[in-house]
User: What shape does this take?
Amino acid sequence: MVSFPSRCLIRMIIQFLVDAISLGSFYALIAIGFSLILGVAHAFNLAHGEMILLSGYLAYFLNRQFSLPLIVSIPISMFSMLFVALCLERLLRRIPDPHELNTLVITFGLVLLLQNLMLMAFSADYRIIRPETRLLDIPVHGLFLTETQIVILTLSLATTGIVYLLLKKTFLGKALRATMQDKETARLAGVNVRNMHLIAFGLGGILIGVAGPLYARMAYLHPYGGMEATLVAVILTIFAGVGRIRGLLLGGWILGLVESATTLLVGSGWRELASAVILILLLLLRPDGLMPKWAKSTQ
Assistant: This one.
C-alpha cells in the first residue's frame, strides 16, 4: 500500500508536470511563427512579442465591449494579425542589405511604436480576460486543472500539430522547408521564393492571432510585456533550429519545466531570470542548438 504522504507527493509531481507541459505547449506556439519568419525570410522580428500583445489586447477589447467568448475572438484576431503581418512583410521586403541587421533596427522601432500605441489605447493598467469557470476537478489522482489550462493546452497542441502536418505532408510545406534550407537551390527548383516569404509572414501572423488571446487569458497584459514573449521565441528557436516543430515543442516543454520549477522553488519573480540564463548558456555552449538528433530529423 502506498502511504498517504507518498500519494500526496505523487499527486504534486503529476500536477507540476501537467502545469509545466501546459505552459511549455503555449511557449512552442509562441515560437513557431517567429521561427518560420526567421527561417524563410531571414527577418529577425523583435516586435514578435508586441504583436502577440496587440492580438491579446484585441481579444480583450472584444471580450469587454461585445462579450465575445475566446473561441469567437480568436478567428477575428487571426485575420487581423494576418493583415498586420503581411503589411510588415511589405515593409521589410524593401530593406537593403545587410537584411538581417536592418530588420533588427526596423522591428526595434516597431517595438517602440506598438508599445506607445498600446499605452495610449489601454493605459499602463494590467488587463486580463477572466474565464467563466475557475477550476475543474479531475477525478484521476485528484488533479486540478483550470479551464484556462485546458483551453491553452488543447489549442496549442492542435495548432502545433496542424503546422507540423502542413510542413511535412504538403507541397507548400516542402517548398517552405526548401526555402529555409537554401533559397537559391529552391529558386532553381521552381519555388517562388518571394511568395514563400509572403506565406511565411502570413502563417506567422495567423499563429500570433492564436497566441495573443491565449496570452490574454493566462497572463496580465501590459504595454511593455512583449519582450518576455520575444525572449521565449528566441530561446526555443536557438534550441530547435528554424522551422523544426518537434524541436520547438520539446524545447517549450523543457522551458516550461524550468520556469515552473523556478517559480515553485524561489518564486515567480525569478522566472524571467531563469529564461535569460538558459539563453546565455545556449549562446555560449552550443549556438547551433542542443536539440537531439531525432528532433532534427524533422527538417
In short: The first strand starts at residue 136 and ends at 138. Residues 4-296 form one domain. The longest helix spans residues 4-41.
